[in-house]
From TrEMBL:
Keywords: DNA integration, DNA recombination, DNA-binding. It comes from Maribacter arenosus. Belongs to the 'phage' integrase family. InterPro entries: Arm-DNA-bind_5, CB, DNA_brk_join_enz, Integrase-like_cat_sf, Integrase_catalytic, Integrase_recombinase_N, SAM-like_dom, Tyrosine_recombinase_XerCD. PANTHER family: PHAGE INTEGRASE-RELATED, PROPHAGE INTEGRASE INTD-RELATED. This is Site-specific integrase. Residues 103-187 form the Core-binding (CB) domain.
Length: 404
């Protein structure tokens, strides 16, 4: 007789009124249920699609867990059938359960990445996907269990990242942060016990090394402004870079989304991509010639000022991200050539436009005003960011001591 498995919600609530998620195993019209250890309110169950509704706070995690259990259950069932084993549903459950004792790191990671992708957090998605693959490749299998990720394992992983991938200390810490995030999720889902947690003061400590932010000086920016004999691509790149710099280091993702309709009353109005904040800034006089040079391409008021996103599917966040990323790489390639022509030794990139504004601002502008210009939510963030570029007091203190 035919056997089958399916995901289901059992209609037997626990003492808290929550219902258990399970995989149903049917053989000869007799069913057994393999519980996965998680309960939900019945309002979160989508009976038609046999899935946890997206309104549940852990929907992605639970649905990935359910699908992984169903997949492994079907695999075990097929193996039993291929061996011509005619056994009951309870015996099938016993065979399947023995192979499903734990949920792997890879399964939780897949749910986490899917969540990032669904929320259009593509920068985080692609960077964390690389970090997750670093760990799985180090282990050599997708069957890595959370119980195996202990202090010794992580110290060997750190050493591996230094020697085999030549990663900086900051990049290594970023790898550990992803692992910690997934470990906390696994604890929350009951997949691993808190006692197995490998992070803490007496275990693996996550401490971010102080980041070095390098910005251009006034003289270096002037060299870029005054460059002549630039190619068409280099000239366009310089315009985009200066556009960002003149407006307090607008991020490239926001620069490329600015339309002519966003510019009126001698101001630029736009919504930040990072935190959806509305921003309105006066157009500096230096920006007017750049806008005039771009105006020759303008046909409609809704056109982009810069053309990189003209062919992007604006309803597809992933496509917009991909084209922005491609454009950034292109700009950085030409900025390298511009830096050579300007005889600037520093690494010039699109992001350094923001650092350059901070470096030139130094401590000459009140931190509250810088917070508005940077569009930071917290003044603490602004103070930490700007501390990279404020050296006058420490320089004076040093001179006061040694110049005797």
């Amino acid at each position: 007789m035919a056997s089958n498995t399916k995901i289901t919600l059992r209609k037997k609530p626990n003492k808290d009124g929550l219902y258990p998620l399970a995989v149903r195993i049917t053989k000869n019209r007799k069913s057994n249920y393999m519980y996965i250890g998680h309960y939900i309110d019945i309002k979160y169950w989508d009976k038609r699609n046999m899935a946890v509704r997206k309104s549940h706070p852990n929907a992605d995690l639970l649905n990935t867990l359910l699908l992984s259990k169903l997949t492994e259950a079907n695999k075990t069932l097929l193996e039993l059938q291929s061996d011509n084993q005619d056994i009951s549903s309870s015996q099938i459950k016993k065979e399947i359960t023995s192979t499903l004792a734990f949920t792997t790191f890879s399964e939780i990671a897949d749910a986490y990445l899917k969540e990032l992708e669904n929320n259009s957090k593509f920068t985080r998605f692609f960077s964390d996907k690389v970090r997750i693959n670093h760990l799985l490749n180090f282990y050599g299998s997708k069957r890595l269990m959370f119980q195996e990720i202990n202090e010794g394992f992580l110290r060997r992983f750190q050493s591996h990242l230094r020697s085999n991938h030549n990663l900086s200390e900051r990049s290594i810490v970023n790898n550990l942060v992803v692992i910690r995030t997934l470990f906390n999720r696994a604890i929350k889902l009951g997949i691993v016990d808190q006692k197995n947690y490998p992070f803490g003061a007496d275990k693996i400590r996550i401490k971010f090394p102080e980041a070095e932010k390098v910005g251009l000086t006034i003289e270096e920016v002037q060299k870029i402004e005054n460059l002549e004999n630039l190619s068409k691509q280099e000239l366009h790149t310089r315009n985009v870079w200066l556009f960002s710099f003149y407006l307090a280091g607008i991020r490239i993702g926001d620069v490329l989304k600015i339309r002519w309709s966003d510019i009126y009353e001698n101001r630029i109005h736009y919504r930040m991509n990072k935190n959806s904040k509305l921003v309105s800034l006066k157009l500096p006089d230096k920006l007017i010639p750049i806008l005039e040079s771009c105006r020759v391409r303008k046909k409609y008021s809704n056109d982009f000022v810069f053309p990189e996103l003209e062919k992007a599917d604006l309803k597809n966040d992933k496509d917009v991200y991909a084209k922005t990323n491609t454009a950034t790489k292109k700009f950085n390639k030409y900025l390298k050539k511009i830096a050579i022509k300007a005889k600037i030794d520093k690494k010039v990139t699109m992001h350094i436009a923001r650092h350059s504004f901070g470096n030139i601002a130094g401590d000459r502008i009140p931190v509250q005003m810088l917070q508005k210009l940077y569009r930071h939510s917290s003044i603490t963030t602004t103070m930490q960011y700007q501390s990279n570029f404020i050296n006058k007091e420490t320089d004076k203190a040093l001179d006061d001591v040694v110049n005797f």
